[in-house]
Design goal:
By secondary structure, this protein is α/β, with parallel strands linked by helices. It has 3 domains: about 50 residues, no CATH class; about 220 residues, 2-Layer Sandwich (Endonuclease, Chain A); about 170 residues, Endonuclease, Chain A, CATH 3.30.870. The chain is built from 19 helices and 20 strands. The strands form 3 sheets. It has a 16-stranded mixed β-sheet that branches. A two-stranded parallel ribbon has the order 8-15. Strands 12-18 form a two-stranded parallel ribbon. Helix 6 packs parallel to helix 7. The longest helix is centred in the first third of the chain and has 20 residues. It is globular and about 80 Å long.
């Protein structure tokens, strides 16, 4: 930025403004922020006060507006009161003490209890799980709740949309939520809106940015959840966005770049937890309460299901207390005694998560991390790469899933005791800026099933070595470190 003549009146005012912004930033920026985040913002403002402060005003605050936050608190209070009146179907004391304490932590922070008697089925077939969701919607008798960060109406997702239309024709209440900016970035967005307007589906964008209608907030806040609930008795959650596996982008289709996902199909009391998360988001966006009475159909026992599984839904995001997902992740990592397997497409940890992972490796726990060989996002990919050397030095084994595929699944296992599956990445964005939903499953049979998925990743992936990583050009390391700094600007 060009400085004006310091001897002119404008130059003096400019100098006072820059010095004043620096002084104000020193006393304001660190408040209620992690030290790394505060230091990143301070560095930006100290280097370029005016531009840095304008960027901070746009991206540095996670306030969502009093009405939105108030509705969210109302909904969570109602859910807590309702669940506290219900008898829990699973005694957490049956679990190992560290896991029981995590369940208690999750309940206190996220309002949803650990429940037993659930049926769990893992789905790693991209188109297959969309067809499975469509089949469940065709069985709906009361309501269908759909909430996906990215939603597109294309050849792959059309069977699900057609099943939603058929459900409305039967008198089923179909509600659909999708993130406004997340979905808007996918080709065909406006065509999807035109098609939706011709249906009886009740749909709304989440976190809309519409300045002319008085709707504006920090533009990089996202509702990143993926949820489908049918009649309150069958639910799906995980990493998949509602779009075809190349995200409808010609460049991806030309490269053969497809996203690899993992979803979980659920039956039992835990589905009520997923429905509660949807109901909260629906109330926040529309102001309309949702009745959550479950309509149970005939049990559907499948040969590849795990039965009688304890499950707990853990919502997190802006306005939800204390980064619920991060606290659960780090607590479980410190509880590990033998093995940790992590799968995260965007691994950009804060200090607490990085220390939990590297400390586990240093104390002799076998730790492995599955990531993509080639990142689909430039800044995040370089920021993630800046952590590899520290991880490798600590003894973490890093496996890179081969290009052109993007390993987008988000899950981890701890020893043989507990699995976590959901929408949350292991990055600072998922901890502080995104609305996420995670599912904790403290069950050895589910862990064994998820180990099979991890074994499949390992068989396809190439292990990264420290010697190989040290051969990177200096310019690449420089970009990695710069992007690591930008990742902390929250």
């Amino acid at each position: 930025m060009t400085w004006p003549d310091p001897t002119s009146t404008f130059g003096v005012i400019f100098l006072i403004l820059e010095v004043g912004l620096r002084v104000v930033a020193l006393g304001v920026i660190p408040g209620n922020r992690k030290p790394s985040t505060g230091m990143a913002w301070l560095l930006l403002i100290l280097v370029e006060p005016i531009i840095g402060f304008l960027i901070f005003l746009t991206f540095g605050r996670t306030r969502l507006g009093n009405r939105r936050v108030g509705r969210q608190r109302e909904a969570m209070k109602a859910i807590r009161e309702r669940t506290d009146q219900l008898p829990l179907s699973f005694d957490a004391n049956r679990l190992p003490a560290p896991i029981a304490r995590v369940a208690s932590l999750n309940h206190r922070l996220g309002a949803l209890p650990l429940t037993g008697g659930n049926e769990v089925q893992l789905w790693d077939e991209y188109s297959g799980v969309i067809l499975e969701m469509a089949a469940e919607v065709d069985r709906a008798r009361s309501h269908v709740h759909v909430e996906f960060y990215i939603t597109a109406w294309d050849d792959v997702t059309d069977p699900l949309f057609q099943s939603l239309i058929r459900a409305t024709a039967r008198g089923v209440d179909v509600r659909l939520l999708f993130d406004h900016l997340g979905s808007r970035g996918i080709p065909g967005y406006h065509r999807m809106l035109r098609r939706l307007r011709k249906t009886d589906i009740d749909w709304h964008p989440m976190l809309p940015i519409q300045p002319l209608q008085g709707r504006f907030r920090r533009p990089d806040l996202r509702n990143h959840r993926k949820i489908l609930v049918v009649d309150g008795s069958v639910g799906f959650t995980g990493s998949l966005n509602l779009t075809e596996p190349c995200y409808n982008k010609p460049k991806n289709q030309k490269l053969g770049r497809e996203w690899v996902e993992l979803m979980v199909r659920l039956e039992g009391p835990v589905v009520g937890g997923l429905n509660s998360v949807f109901a909260t988001d629906w109330y926040v966006e529309t102001g309309e309460p949702v009745e959550l009475v479950a309509v149970h159909g005939k049990p559907d026992i499948r040969p590849d299901e795990v039965l009688d599984v304890p499950c707990q839904v853990v919502p997190s995001g802006p306005g939800v207390r204390a980064e619920n997902n991060l606290r659960m992740f780090t607590t479980l990592l410190y509880a590990a005694t033998e093995r940790i397997s992590l799968t995260s497409p965007y691994f950009v940890p804060d200090e607490s998560l990085l220390y939990a992972v590297t400390t586990a490796a240093e104390r002799g726990v076998e730790v492995e991390l599955f990531v993509s060989e080639v990142a689909d996002q430039f800044m995040v990919g370089h920021a993630q790469a800046s952590y590899y050397k520290e991880l490798l030095r600590a003894g973490v084994r890093i496996f890179r899933y081969p290009a052109p595929y993007v390993l987008h699944a988000k899950h981890f296992t701890i020893d043989d005791n507990v699995a976590v599956i959901g929408s949350s990445n292991m990055d600072m964005r998922s901890f502080g800026l995104n609305y996420e939903v995670s599912l904790m499953l403290p069950d050895p049979a589910v862990v064994a099933r998820l180990r099979e998925v991890e074994d499949g990743y390992r068989a396809l992936s190439k292990e990264l070595t420290l010697a190989e990583w040290d051969l990177r050009p200096r310019r690449t390391r420089y970009v990695d470190n710069v992007m690591r700094l930008t990742a902390a600007l929250q």
